[in-house]
Amino acid sequence: MNAWIRQAHRWLSIGFTSTVIANFVAMAFGEPPAWVVYSPLPPLFLLMASGLYMFVLPYAPRLRHRR
């Protein structure tokens, strides 16, 4: 499961970066539609969730050991 989350995090980061680049390109041609402006948010929230999971992962054995 951990390997799958790490791989998903990598692919989400590629998706997030491409939506941000597309956002800047769209802004160069004028006011972009709202769906282009808000398109980076779903990958960003998924990146946050998977990043927090991977951040807590090294501390999980210590938390279990204390109980």
Low-confidence stretches: none
Number of domains: 1
How many DSSP H or I helices? 4
Strand content is: under 5%
Category by helix and strand content: mainly alpha
Indicate the percent of residues in helices. Answer: over 70%
| Spatial gap, N to C terminus | 24 Å
Main sheet properties: none
Shape: elongated
Task: Give me the Rg, rounded.
Answer: 17 Å
The average pLDDT score comes to 92
Q: Tell how many strands the DSSP assignment holds.
A: 0
Task: Summarize the helix and strand pattern as letters.
Answer: HHHH
Protein name: Transmembrane protein
Keywords: Membrane, Transmembrane, Transmembrane helix
Organism: Luteimonas viscosa
Transmembrane segments: 12-29, 41-60
Folded structure, characterized:
The chain is mainly α and 67 residues long. The chain has one domain. Helix content is 81%, strand content 0%. It has 4 helices and no strands. Helix 1 packs antiparallel against helix 3. The longest helix has 27 residues. The model has no long low-confidence stretch (mean pLDDT 92).
Short description:
With 67 residues, this protein is mainly alpha-helical. 81% of the residues lie in helices and 0% in strands.
Features:
mainly alpha, Transmembrane protein, transmembrane, 67 residues
Lay out the secondary structure.
Blueprint (H helix, E strand, L loop, with lengths): L1 H27 L5 H4 L3 H16 L3 H7 L1
